[in-house]
Structure prediction request, 110 residues.
Amino acid sequence: LLVIRGNVYKSQGGTQNLLLARQSFQKAVDKEPTLAPAYWAWVTFSLETRQYDETATLLTQIKQKLHVKIKDLTTLPAYAGFVHSDAYQKWIASQPSAQPAPAGTGKNVN
Prediction:
């Protein structure tokens, strides 16, 4: 229910509704730490609002708590902004199987 509520707030737009959307996604994750749709809704929200540090944190949590392997994000259009961000460079460098990409390239080297 909290994920649906968050998506409704997000679709309505505006500063207050976006704040309520983020809070709804966070509450959903806090209440059910293994609820994958809550994480993915929050990731989508963070991408759409260009909160890329938040995106990186969420992807790490998804890997750790849900045991999901994150594939090459450089091939996904929805992640383009994130891939070109400093947050992505830091995140990819922290991944055990990845080597940091050259700055500004948005490519990881496996």
Q: What stands out?
A: DSSP finds six helices and no strands in the chain.
